[in-house]
Amino acid sequence: MGIIRDMQRARATQVAADQRANTAAAQQRDLIRRNADHAIAAAQQAASDMERQRERRRLYVEARTADAAAANAELRARLSDLDALLLSTLEVDDHIDLDQFKKQLTAPPFDPGPLGRPLPEPSWQSYVPPQPRGVGKLLGGPLHQQQTANARRAYEQARARWVEAEQRRKGQLLARKRAYDESKRKYEAKMTAYNAEVDRFAAAVADADPASVVEYFAMVLGNSVYPDDFPQHFRLAYLPKQRHLLIEYHLPPIEVVPIVKEYRFDRLRDDLTAIPRDEGEIRRRYVDIIARVTLRTIHEIIEADRGGLVRQASFNGIVDAIDRRTGRFVRPCLVSVKTERETFAAIKLRRVDPVACLRHLQGALSPAPDELAGVTPKIDFERDADRDFTEEFNVLADIDERPNLVTLTDVAWEKQLTDLFGVMGLDMGSAERADNGSRWLATDPRPIFGGRVVVHAGRGAPAGAPAVHALAGAVTAAGATKGILVSLGGIEPDAYEALAGRPLELIDGTALVTLLASHCRIKARIELIR
Q1: HEC readout, 265-294
Q2: From 293's CA, which of 78, 318, 319, 514 has a CA 20 to 30 Å away?
Q3: Helix (H, G, I), strand (E, B), or coil: what is residue 150?
C-alpha cells in the first residue's frame, strides 16, 4: 500500500503548508521581509553624487536594520515552530479512514467528438439553377435544360461523396466506441481490483495482521509533518500476541535549535552581529524537543488506533550524529519509554510539561543530549522485535528533493556558496580548495562600506577557536575588511569567544539553510550519511 502512504503524505504536507502560510508569524515575517526588500531597493536607487551621500547612507542603514529585523523574525518563527511540536498535532485527527482511498468505478462518459455529428447532406435546392425570366424565358429553354442537367450531375456527385464520408464517419465512430468500451472495461477492472486491495488491507489491519498493522501506523507517522530539517526516519515492529507496537524513531540533531539568539546591526562595523544563544538554553530546548517528539509520536499512534490494535507502545528515540571526540558516526538512544494505552490516553497533553510527563511515564531521558549521552533503552529493538513483522521507513527518502548540503560534490558545494553570496552582493571570484575546506577572496563593491572579504567554508567537524584565528589571520594578510566562516558541522562555543570584536561573521549549518531559503529560494537540508 505504498501508493496510499505517498498520497496521504502529500495531502498532509499540503495541509500543514497551508496552515503555516496562514499563521500570524508567517504573515509578520513576510511583512518584515518585504520592508527589508523595499529598503534595500531604495538604497540601491539612491544617487551616488556627493550631495546625496547622506541620504544614501541613511537608506542603507535602514536596509541593514530591516535585514536584522527579518533575521530575528525568522528566529522567532523557528522557535515558535519548535515550541508547537506537540500542540500542533493535537489539532489533527490522526485516524486514517482507508475508505477514502477507494476510487469511483464510473468511467468518464463516451465522448464521440466531431464523429458524433452527422455531416450535412447536400440539398438539391442548393444546386437548382434559377428559372429564366423575360426574354430569357422565351428563348432560353434549351439553355436552362442544359444548366439543370449539369446541376443534377454536380448534386449527385456531391451526394455520392457525402454518402461515402458518412459511411467512413460511422465506421470511425463505431471503432472509437469499441475502443472506449474496451478502455472502460479495463478501467473498471483496474478500479475494482484497486478497491478490493484497499478492502483487503483494511480487513488485514482490523484482523491485526502484523505486516498490515506496521504499514498502517507507518502511514500515520508519515502524515505527521515536521519542520524540513527533521529526519522522519523510523522502524516499526508489531507483536500481535501482546498487541505491542515497538517504535525506533530518529530524532533531529541538536542543530535544529538556533544557536543565534538575536541579530543586531552594528553601524560602526557595518555588520550583522550574531548574539549567541546560551549553551544551557540550547540544551534545555533540545531536551524539550526530544520529549515533545516522543509524546507526539505515541499520541499519534494511540489516536489513530480506533480498533484497539495497540495495548502497549514502546519508543526508542535515537539520533545520528558525529562524536566530536572521535569524529566517528554514532547513534545513541537519547530517550526511551514504555507505556500502556490506558495510561497514556488518560494524560491531558495540552496542559503537560513534556519533560515532566515523560518522567511520570517512567521514561528514560538523556540529561545531556548535546553531549550524546545515551540512556539504557526500555526495549532492545533488535532482540525484542520479530524480524518477520518489522519494517523500516524513511518518509522523506523518496519525496525529498531538497539538496543535501552534506553530500554535494565539492564543485556543487562551492557553486552553492558562490551563488548565495553573489545574490547577497559579493563578487566571489574563484574558489581555492584546501584540506579543511574552500576559500574565497571576495569583493564587496559598495562604496564606503565595501572592500575585500575573505570567505572560509567547510563541511567537516564543528569549527572552533582555531578556525576563527585562521580566518582572522587570512583577513589581515589580505588587507580585507571582513571575514566570513561557514561551518556546516556547527560552531563550537569557544569560536564565539574567539571573535573578540573582530570583523568576522560565523555561519553554521542551520543559518546557512535559512540564508539559502531567504536569498536564493532554495530549500536545502543537512542529513548525515553513515
Answers
A1: EECCCCEEEEEECCHHHHHHHHHHHHHHHH
A2: 514
A3: helix
Encode pLDDT of 466-517 as tens digits.
999 999 999 999 999 999 999 988 888 888 888 877 889 899 887 888 788 7
**pLDDT tens-digit profile of 286-327?**
999 999 999 999 999 999 999 999 999 999 999 988 887 777
Tell me the pTM.
0.64
Identify which of 288, 277, 294, 391 has the alpha carbon closest to the alpha carbon of residue 338: 294
Task: State the cell numbers at 169.
Answer: 464517419
d(CA 522, CA 516): 5
Q: Residue 253: which of 94, 490, 518 has the closest Cα?
A: 490
Tens of pLDDT, residues 160-205: 998 898 899 889 989 988 988 888 888 888 888 888 888 998 999 9
Task: Spell out the residues 6+ positions from residue 325 whose beta carbon is closer than 8 angstroms to its own.
Answer: none
Which class for 406: exposed (0-12), middle (13-18), buried (19 or more C-beta within 10 A)? middle
Give the DSSP H/E element, type plus range, for residue 335: strand 333-340
Instruction: Assign 317 to helix, strand or coil.
Output: strand
Residue 455 in grid coordinates: 570567505
297 in Cβ contact with 229 (< 8 Å): no
- Buried b or exposed e, range 366-394, using 16+ CB within 10 angstroms: beebbebebbebbbebeeebeeebbbebe
Nearby residues of 388 by Cβ (< 8 Å), 6 or more positions away? 210
In this model, does residue 216 exceed pLDDT 70? yes
Q: What is the CA radius of gyration of the chain?
A: 35
